[in-house]
Specification:
Elements: H1 13-32, H2 39-66, H3 68-74, H4 80-105, H5 110-147, H6 150-157, H7 166-179, H8 182-195, H9 198-211, H10 214-223, H11 227-233
Helix pairs in contact: 1-2, 1-5, 1-7, 2-4, 2-7, 4-5, 7-9, 9-11
C-alpha cells in the first residue's frame, strides 16, 4: 500500500486507515482459525465485528460530512465511487454478522458449514476494505490535499460537530490508538500536538492513555518528552 505524502490535517486519517486495515487482517486471521465447536470464540467474534462496524460508521459518517461535500463542490460526482464502496462494505459486514449470529446458535454439523462460510466472507470483507482504503489513500486524499489549504481543511472538519458525537469520536480514537504500533502512536500524537490547542490535546491524551496498557504509555512518554505532563493537566 502506498501513502502519498500529505501536508494538511487530512494526513491524520492515515493513522485511522492503518488501524482499520490491521483490524480487518486480524479479524480474517482469527476467523480462519476458529474451531467450529468453539462457542465462546464465535460469540467473541460477533462482539468484535459489532465494535468494528460502529467504528467504521463513525469514520465514514465523518467523511460524508467533512470530506465529500467540499470535494463535490469542485468535482461533481467524485464521491460516488467511495459512497458506493461504503454501502457495499456495509453489505459485506451484514453478511458476516448474519453468519456469526447463526453460528452462535447452531448445533452439530451445521457449525462446520457456517465456519467455512464465515472464513470466505471475512476474506471478501477484508479484501474489499483494503482496496477501498488504497483508493482513498492514493487517489482521493491527495486530490483533497492539493485543492484545499490547511485552514480550509480545518474548517471542513467542523462540519461534523454536533452531528458525530464527541463520545463516538472519542471511542473511535481509543479504538484506533489500541491498534497502532508505537511508531504510529508517536506519529499520531505528534500530528495532533501540532493541530490542537494545548488544552484539547491534553484532554485527548488523557483518553488515549487510558486506552492502552500502562507499560505501553510509559514507553511513549520515554519517546515524547512532556507527554506525561500534558496528560496530567487533563485531570
Amino acid at each position: 500500500m502506498t501513502e502519498p505524502e500529505l501536508k494538511g490535517p487530512i494526513k491524520a486519517v492515515h493513522f485511522v486507515h492503518r488501524a482499520i486495515l490491521k483490524e480487518g487482517q486480524d479479524f480474517q486471521e482469527v476467523t480462519s482459525m476458529l474451531d467450529p465447536d468453539d462457542q465462546q470464540g464465535a460469540t467473541e467474534l460477533n462482539n468484535r465485528l459489532a465494535a468494528f462496524e460502529r467504528i467504521l460508521k463513525t469514520h465514514e459518517d465523518s467523511e460524508d460530512l467533512t470530506l465529500f461535500p467540499p470535494l463535490e463542490a469542485r468535482f461533481p460526482d467524485i464521491a460516488d465511487t467511495y459512497e458506493f464502496d461504503h454501502n457495499r462494505h456495509r453489505g459485506h459486514a451484514a453478511a458476516l454478522s448474519a453468519t456469526l449470529s447463526d453460528l452462535v446458535g447452531a448445533q452439530g454439523g451445521r457449525r462446520k458449514e457456517l465456519v467455512k462460510r464465515l472464513g470466505e466472507q471475512a476474506i471478501l470483507f477484508n479484501g474489499f476494505m483494503t482496496l477501498h482504503i488504497d483508493k482513498e489513500n492514493e487517489l482521493l486524499f491527495p486530490t483533497y490535499d492539493e485543492v484545499f489549504s490547511a485552514e480550509e481543511q480545518q474548517a471542513h472538519g467542523k462540519a461534523a460537530e454536533g452531528r458525530v458525537s464527541q463520545q463516538e469520536m472519542a471511542a473511535a480514537g481509543a479504538w484506533m490508538f489500541q491498534r497502532l504500533d508505537i511508531e504510529d502512536r508517536e506519529g499520531f500524537l505528534t500530528e495532533m500536538r501540532g493541530m490542537l490547542p494545548s488544552e484539547a490535546f491534553a484532554g485527548m491524551t488523557q483518553g488515549l492513555m487510558r486506552a492502552i496498557p500502562a507499560s505501553d504509555w510509559e514507553a511513549l512518554v520515554r519517546r515524547m518528552p512532556g507527554l506525561g505532563s500534558m496528560a496530567s493537566r487533563a485531570h
